[in-house]
Specification:
Radius of gyration: 22 Å
CATH superfamily of the largest domain: Globins
Number of strands: 12
Number of domains: 3
CATH topology of the largest domain: Globin-like
CATH architecture of the largest domain: Orthogonal Bundle
């Protein structure tokens, strides 16, 4: 437990963190990787180069300081991050290293404002927060290992099939090299894939949503190939598309993630944009098995990049309303009449097609602009926050600013 004095001291730093938080986390990561380059085998290099991870950590530190007297308020975020940490292989021994460099970064950026009292308070607070993460993650490691077909660290899988789903998305069907059973998962969860790319000093780890239903003898991931190869987040997707073939081996960690379809009887609405269809497809196929009233809306540029359209049409779903929205449909899309709306998803259109009631649960995933637009649209239609569930591809950011 933290003393009242420590809590008061941490809370006094909230205004400073609001201003200097990102500067502190940038300095933190620079020092961390300079002194411990081996950690680059765990961290996502693309998120580092794009500044996403620095911003996400700054938000987390700010939230921790703001809620230091009621840490249970940030428990949902702790669990979300803990899932990611478990899938990446973060261990208890990493936390002292992180704590040491975070305090150094605070001191470096705030200079004389980082008094001994403030640094001591943050050291104490970090110890409490780290212990919560360690406890939650250790339980997750145990659960991953002891479940039927489960394992704790990495496991080698073989690419059994490789199928092109659209001009930009390819699916990889992965079976375990040891031919032993594999762990089940909840529709919407992901696995981490670890690759060693020739010429790169460090390994790369990426999370990919599982795009099929649980209970199969394989895991299926469906990967979008980034067209701009100069972008850091395209390194792994291009490598998988261009160099990983049938019978190649990949190391993966057991399924993880706190974004998944809850088992219930209430109606659901699934909204996806682009490659955000991957967790939604798993949820959709699972909802068919649960006999739930389901509305599925997918938004894409056009039919050339729209993956899994025929797979959705072929589903034996007892109660499914399926809508397609194309931003820029091709002539063939128009001729085939494969879309229901041209342009973007709007509140007005959703009001026409959605079963708006207090029972319905809404799940959405896709590029950040899509997610912001959906959040705004649903909010405008009166959907409550508790009925909205969403997943970020990468570090979490705030969707709320779009509401203003």
């Amino acid at each position: 437990m933290l003393s009242p004095h420590t809590i008061a001291t941490i809370k006094s730093t909230v205004p400073v963190l609001e201003i200097h938080g990102t500067e502190i986390t940038k300095r933190f990561y620079n020092m961390l990787f300079e002194n411990h380059p081996e950690l680059l085998n765990i961290f996502n290099h693309a998120n580092q180069k794009q500044g996403k991870q620095q911003q996400a950590l700054a938000n987390a530190v700010y939230a921790a300081a703001k809620n230091i007297d009621q840490l249970e308020a940030i428990l949902p975020v702790v669990k979300q991050v803990a899932h990611k940490h478990r899938s990446l292989g973060v261990r208890p021994e990493h936390y002292p290293i992180v704590g040491e460099h975070l305090l150094k970064a605070i001191k470096d950026v705030l200079k004389e404002d980082a008094t001994e009292e403030i640094l001591q308070a943050w050291e104490e607070a970090y110890g409490v927060i780290a212990s919560v993460f360690i406890e939650v993650e250790e339980e997750m490691y145990e659960d991953a290992a002891k479940q039927p077909g489960g394992w704790e660290k990495e496991r080698v899988f073989v690419v059994d099939r490789k199928e092109q789903e659209s001009d930009v998305i390819t699916s990889f069907y992965l079976k375990p090299l040891d031919d032993k059973p594999i762990a089940s998962f909840r529709a919407g969860q992901y696995i981490s894939v670890k690759v060693s790319i020739p010429g790169d000093q460090f390994t790369h780890i990426r999370q990919y949503s599982l795009s099929d239903v649980p209970g199969k003898a394989y895991y299926r991931i469906s990967v979008k190939k980034e067209a701009d190869t100069s972008k850091p987040d395209g390194i792994v997707s291009n490598y998988l598309h261009d160099h990983v073939e049938v019978n190649d081996e990949l190391s993966i960690t057991a399924p993880a993630g706190d974004f998944y379809l809850e088992e219930a009887s209430s109606p659901i609405v699934l909204l996806s944009g682009g490659v955000g269809i991957t967790p939604m497809l798993s949820m959709l196929k699972s909802s068919a098995l649960q006999h739930r009233n389901t509305t599925f809306i997918h938004a894409a540029l056009n039919g050339n990049v729209h993956a899994f359209h025929n797979e959705v049409l072929s589903l034996e779903h007892p109660s499914l309303d399926y809508y397609v929205c194309y931003e820029a449909p091709t002539n063939n899309d128009r001729d085939e009449k494969v879309f229901d709306k041209k342009g973007f998803i709007t509140s007005e259109w959703l009001k026409e097609v959605l079963p708006l009631d207090t029972e319905t649960e809404y799940y959405f995933c896709g590029p950040l602009p899509f997610m912001k637009a959906v959040k705004v649209a649903l909010t405008n239609l009166g959907v409550e926050e508790k009925n909205m569930h969403f997943e970020f591809f990468g570090p979490a950011v705030a969707l709320e600013p779009a509401l203003s």
